[in-house]
């Protein structure tokens, strides 16, 4: 009589009954290394001394982390300027995140059409950790244009896409993001009080699009609309951005219709449904 084969073991993504997310389960050295990498990315490059002082870590500790990342191509060192920068290895890892979803691929034709229709740079972004993460962009042919490379982050309250997504969230979620990220001022037009932001989000909900009136960069405007999934939840935003001279008040409604059309097309292509 043949012995019974042992039951097939199912692969798991984490240990059985693993629900403990307390600090004790973090690998502190790894957490510190990733914090150094994140700060280097935010700064766009830094010397060892500046980075160590910024993070209040010893230069020897920071150097060991950077040296380890350099061996993997995650960071690069510029010997002439004595500065460290994010390397190609980090980009390769980040690009795999973009390939994880069909969102970017599906959005490209609609972004191209939107750019051609408006003659302004078209953008795709999503919310990530209380900020806007820019995923894709189709640049205008004009010499003066906005530029948000894939992977760039922006505060939600001072971004067209950010406000388009915030307007779709419950008030408690908006309040939580404000508490965590603050309402930093970038220009004289930035919305820096919860009351001013709430009024803007209500207007955004009523008209169906968000309008950034030089709230992040002087002289630059942005019009954005949300993209929804099959559960009618906002998963991304589509926008156009350009100089205020090319997006005057009298053109906003016309351009907004083009942005809303692109967002609706992408929603439908993803099998989504507007609320």
Characterization of the model:
The protein has 2 domains: 26-92, Arc Repressor Mutant, subunit A; 101-269, Beta-Lactamase (2-Layer Sandwich), CATH 3.30.450. The protein starts with 27 loop residues before the first helix and ends in a 6-residue tail after the last helix. It is built from 9 helices and 8 strands. Helix 5 (103-118) packs antiparallel against helix 9. With 275 residues, it is an alpha+beta fold. The protein is globular and about 55 Å long.
Short descriptors:
alpha+beta; Arc Repressor Mutant, subunit A; Beta-Lactamase; 2 domains; six-stranded antiparallel beta sheet; about 20% strand
Outline of the structure:
The chain is α+β, with helices and mostly antiparallel strands and 275 residues long.
What are the SSEs and their pairings?
Elements: H1 28-43, H2 48-55, H3 59-71, E1 75-78, E2 83-86, H4 88-99, H5 103-118, E3 121-128, E4 131-138, E5 153-155, H6 160-166, H7 171-181, H8 194-207, E6 210-213, E7 220-228, E8 234-243, H9 252-269
Helix pairs in contact: 2-3, 5-9
| Tally of individual domains | 2
Give the biggest sheet. 6 strands, antiparallel
Number of DSSP E strands: 8
The SS-based structural class is alpha+beta
CATH topology of the largest domain: Beta-Lactamase
């Amino acid at each position: 009589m043949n012995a019974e084969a042992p039951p097939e073991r199912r692969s798991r993504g984490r240990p059985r009954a693993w629900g403990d997310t307390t600090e004790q389960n973090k690998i502190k050295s790894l957490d510190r290394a990733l914090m150094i990498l994140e700060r280097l990315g935010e700064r766009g490059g830094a010397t060892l001394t500046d980075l160590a002082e910024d993070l209040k870590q010893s230069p020897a500790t920071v150097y060991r982390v950077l040296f380890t990342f350099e061996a993997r191509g995650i960071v690069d060192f510029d010997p002439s300027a004595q500065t460290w920068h994010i390397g190609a290895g980090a980009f390769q890892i980040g690009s795999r995140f973009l390939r994880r979803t069909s969102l970017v691929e599906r959005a490209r034709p609609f972004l191209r059409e939107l750019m051609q229709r408006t003659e302004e740079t078209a953008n795709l972004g999503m919310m990530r950790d209380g900020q806007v993460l820019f995923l894709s962009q189709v640049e205008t042919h004009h010499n003066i244009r906005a530029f948000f490379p894939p992977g760039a982050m922006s505060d939600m309250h001072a971004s067209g896409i950010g406000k388009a997504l915030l307007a779709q969230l419950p008030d408690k979620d908006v309040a939580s993001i404000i508490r965590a990220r603050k309402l930093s001022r970038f220009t004289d037009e930035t919305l820096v009080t919860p009351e001013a932001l709430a009024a803007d989000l209500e207007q955004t909900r009523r008209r169906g699009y968000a309008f950034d009136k030089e709230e992040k960069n002087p002289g630059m405007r942005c019009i954005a609309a949300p993209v929804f999934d099959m559960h009618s939840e906002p998963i991304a935003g589509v926008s156009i951005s350009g100089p205020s001279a090319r997006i005057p008040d009298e053109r906003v409604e016309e351009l907004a219709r083009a942005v809303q059309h692109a967002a609706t097309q992408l929603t439908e292509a993803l099998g989504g449904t507007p609320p």
